[in-house]
Amino acid sequence: MPDLRIESLTITYGSGDLAVTPVKDFYRTIAPGTLALLLGPSGCGKTTLLSCLAGILTPSSGAIHFGDVEITALSGPALTEFRRHRVGIVFQGFNLVASLDATENVMVPLRAAGVPRPEARRRALERLTRVGLADRAHHHPGGLSGGQQQRVAIARALALEPPLLIADEPTANLDNVQVEMVLRTLRSLTDSGRTVVVSTHDHRLLALADDVVEMAPTSVAEGHGTERRTVAAGETLFREGSRGDKIYEVVRGDIRLRQRRGERDVVIAAVTAGDFFGEMSALFGLARSATAIAAVESEVVAYGVADFRAKFGTDRIMELVARTESETRARDQRRLVTDPSAAG
Ligand SMILES: Nc1ncnc2c1ncn2[C@@H]1O[C@H](COP(=O)(O)OP(=O)(O)OP(=O)(O)O)[C@@H](O)[C@H]1O
Ligand SMILES: [Mg+2]
Questions:
Q1: DSSP secondary structure letters along 214-232
Q2: C-alpha of residue 40 to centroid of ligand 2, in Å
Q3: What domains are there in the chain, each with its CATH number?
Q4: 3-state SS class at 53
Q5: Whose atoms come closest to the Cα of 38: which ligand?
Q6: Closest ligand to 289 CA?
Q7: Minimal-distance CA residue to ligand 1 atom 25
């Protein structure tokens, strides 16, 4: 069974001021038959790294080898072959097809690979049995618990018996009992020498791992410096998910904060003269929770945290944080009432 070798991997999204480099000069070798955890807070680059391992994303530089295959150099039919037969992926959402039952969902990659229907069905049932779901083979995703759906997704990733299995946050939104079943399933998959790489911020997974890759966020130093700038209408100040060390004050104009909600992109706030935004990310090193775009030409002052504290004082910082907290809570409550799909 092959080693997974990551060498000097760097991945940059975007360019210029908006460039984000979640993975920088990253090295790691993961031995065959290992359950490896990528552990780190939201936005530190777990999905990004997994996407490269899966051959879905091409890095900016560096290489990933799986045995004698250089994943990062594959293209065309060789890449298709790798993705289909060498790697199985369990996505952050389950991505099951609602109109197909569990067996049919697992059959999808088998049929796509040209396995005849009766044989595909036989193998799908075998994979479902392996993840402990033989008795749910004919349930549709809607009739399964979150943990069961996740195990169907694992069975589907296993359909073609890939030597490498990748799972992105497989225990997100699961209760303890379900987490345990999913973990046991993932753990058992390395028995045959398969390499399993799992991203998580769930520390419950630590006990089961052979190898833990701690992915620290690119460190956010307490920023100094104050900069006044004009932002053109339509210009983006920062993007949701990125990191930044500045708190902004609007001097004139109108800055809209937009947040992704599944497929949609909604305006969650319009910030106008005298108001502030961006403090949570700057203070706590969190990923930006929204994208900030100027609705009209605007003028803003960007403060490093130290400068902000010097000018406005600690009390003002506390007020801002408390306000953000209560707004977020109110919004989440509204969302639960108006949008039942957001509850999951
Ligand atoms: N397609 C993209 N374009 C621009 N930036 C991106 C893109 N995808 C991710 N990023 C940025 O790269 C960083 C890492 O994102 P990534 O999704 O890999 O994090 P993660 O560790 O998986 O986070 P989470 O735990 O929330 O899933 C984030 O700052 C994110 O905003
Ligand atoms: Mg992710």
A1: E-PPPP-PPP--EEEEEE-
A2: 10
A3: 4-214 (3.40.50.300), 226-343 (2.60.120.10)
A4: helix
A5: 1
A6: 1
A7: 42
Phi, psi (deg, nearest 5) at residue 231: -115, 125
Q: Are 19 and 13 in contact (CB under 8 A)?
A: yes
Supply the angle between the helices 117-130 and 102-112 in degrees, to the nearest 10.
Answer: 130
Q: What are the tens digits of pLDDT across the range 12-71? A: 998 877 788 899 889 999 999 999 999 888 888 999 999 999 999 999 999 999 999 999
Phi/psi of residue 238, nearest 5 degrees? -155, 160
| pLDDT tens-digit map of 106-115 | 999 999 888 9
Residue 287 Cα to ligand 1 middle (Å): 9
Instruction: Look at the alpha carbons of 178, 179, 182, 185 in this order and tell me if their dihedral is positive or negative.
Output: negative
User: Global pTM?
Assistant: 0.67
Burial class (CB in 10 A: 0-12, 13-18, 19+), 75: exposed
Q: How far apart (Å, rounded) are the C-alpha atoms in residues 62 and 97? A: 35
Q: From the CB of 132, is ligand 1 less than 6 Å away?
A: no
Q: Judge if the beta carbon of residue 18 lies within 6 A of ligand 1.
A: no
